[in-house]
């Protein structure tokens, strides 16, 4: 069964903005406006929903957030849905989304990361529709470093499009831009050199599979539920196997180690041909680093494990398409990730 890709966006198409998790505080409203204008500059009409309140940890009651997201995903006039960012508790939406209606509707691009993994990964697993992990709306104004692509390029790409990304080998060591003070921030601070790191041993990596994954702290809460059955997805859509990616948002190494152990025992990595691990600024502990946490939990898989990939909370961002066919190459002199939308 083929993965379903939403139709490429064309000028005049509508992009829906809603907050399935956290909304936008009033003091960051100008950054939101800058990001919206950048999307409009591509020729799209931006429709901002009602669930955007940033005064609490969620933008609206769960039923309202689920209804607005479902409405956007089933509206044939909305071609993409992009949240301002993630949050903490989007998992309360999952039982309230009308999955049958979403599955029956024409596919719509959904873009996001962090807590949006809670929605996007199940969306791909349950409906077979591709989603884009690795950008949020509030990140959109940043200039994309050479070698990477923007979500705006991906959602406009034709069927079968193949694109390669090469890491810039520089990242931000700590901190984020203050959007209240600098709402028009457009240049990433990439102050630290760093390459991808193979954790399971030496040697070159050259492996293919279909991409699926997301944020560890969010997805670990879905293990054992109908929303995170990667094995069924692999049987239906990826007989060649999966390339599974995970990234830690901020929890310490002990917590991430426990989370990954649980996800492995629940079968999340069962069909993995390799695991990609996002670069993280999450803390080590006195006796366990983040790298050690990963290999302690995932070493028993006996597949390549490549860390420090730009698919997490540390800028810059390398977008990954859940469901896309992918080839990963990592050697002493070359790192490249190629995705094909077929």
Largest sheet: 8 strands, mixed
User: What gross morphology would you assign?
Assistant: globular
Strands of the largest sheet, in order across it? 6-16-15-10-11-12-13-9
In percent terms, what proportion of residues is strand? 15-25%
Which sequence of SSEs, written as H and E, runs from N to C? Answer: EHEHEHEHEHEEEEEHHEHEHEEEE
Count helical runs: 9
Low-confidence stretches: none
Could you report the average pLDDT, rounded to the nearest whole number? 97
The secondary-structure class comes to alpha/beta
Helical percent range?
10-25%
Supply Rg.
Answer: 19 Å
Oligomer description: single chain
Q: N- to C-terminal separation?
A: 11 Å
Compute the number of strand runs: 16
Describe the SSE topology.
Elements: E1 14-17, H1 29-40, E2 45-48, H2 62-74, E3 78-81, H3 99-104, E4 109-112, H4 117-127, E5 131-133, H5 151-155, E6 162-165, E7 170-171, E8 192-193, E9 197-198, E10 205-215, H6 216-219, H7 230-237, E11 242-247, H8 253-265, E12 272-278, H9 290-298, E13 305-309, E14 320-322, E15 325-330, E16 335-340
Parallel strand pairs: 1-2, 1-3, 3-4, 4-5, 10-11, 11-12, 12-13
Antiparallel strand pairs: 5-14, 6-16, 7-8, 9-13, 10-15, 15-16
What key attributes describe this structure?
single chain; 342 residues; alpha/beta; 8-stranded mixed sheet; 6-stranded mixed sheet; 9 helices; 16 strands; 21% strand
What do these coordinates show?
The structure is a single chain. The protein is built from 9 helices and 16 strands. It has 342 residues and is of the alpha/beta class. It has an 8-stranded mixed beta sheet with strand order 6-16-15-10-11-12-13-9. A 6-stranded mixed beta sheet has the order 2-1-3-4-5-14, sandwiched between helices. Helix 8 packs parallel to helix 9. The longest helix has 13 residues, at 62-74. It is globular and about 50 Å long. The termini are close together.
């Amino acid at each position: 069964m083929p993965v379903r890709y939403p139709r490429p966006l064309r000028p005049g198409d509508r992009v829906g903005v809603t907050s399935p998790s956290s909304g936008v505080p009033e003091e960051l409203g100008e950054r939101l406006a800058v990001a919206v204008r950048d999307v409009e500059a591509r020729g799209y009409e931006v429709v901002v929903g009602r669930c955007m309140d940033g005064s609490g940890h969620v933008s609206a009651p769960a039923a309202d957030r689920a209804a607005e997201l479902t409405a956007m995903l089933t509206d044939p006039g909305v071609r993409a849905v992009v949240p301002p960012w993630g949050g903490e508790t989007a998992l309360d939406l999952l039982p309230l989304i009308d999955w049958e209606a979403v599955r029956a509707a024409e596919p719509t691009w959904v873009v996001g990361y962090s807590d949006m993994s809670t929605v996007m990964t199940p969306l791909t697993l349950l409906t077979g529709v591709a989603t884009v992990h690795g950008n949020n709306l509030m990140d959109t104004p940043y200039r994309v470093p050479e070698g990477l692509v923007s979500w705006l390029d991906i959602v406009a790409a034709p069927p079968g499009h193949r694109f390669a990304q090469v890491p810039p080998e520089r990242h931000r060591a700590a901190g984020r831009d203050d959007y209240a003070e600098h709402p028009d921030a457009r240049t990433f601070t990439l102050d630290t050199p760093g390459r991808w790191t193979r954790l399971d041993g030496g040697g070159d990596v050259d492996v293919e599979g279909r991409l699926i994954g997301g944020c560890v702290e969010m997805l670990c809460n879905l293990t054992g539920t109908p929303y995170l059955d990667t094995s069924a997805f692999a049987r239906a859509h990826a007989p060649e196997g999966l390339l599974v990616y995970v990234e830690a948002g901020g929890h310490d190494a002990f917590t991430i180690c426990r989370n990954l152990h649980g996800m492995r025992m629940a079968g999340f990595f069962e069909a993995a041909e390799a695991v990609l691990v996002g670069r993280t600024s999450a803390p080590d502990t006195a006796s366990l680093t983040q790298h050690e946490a990963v290999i302690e939990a995932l070493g028993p898989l006996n597949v390549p494990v490549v860390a420090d990939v730009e698919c997490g909370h540390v800028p810059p961002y390398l977008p990954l398409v859940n469901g896309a066919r992918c080839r990963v190459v990592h050697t002493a002199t070359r790192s490249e990730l190629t995705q094909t939308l077929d």
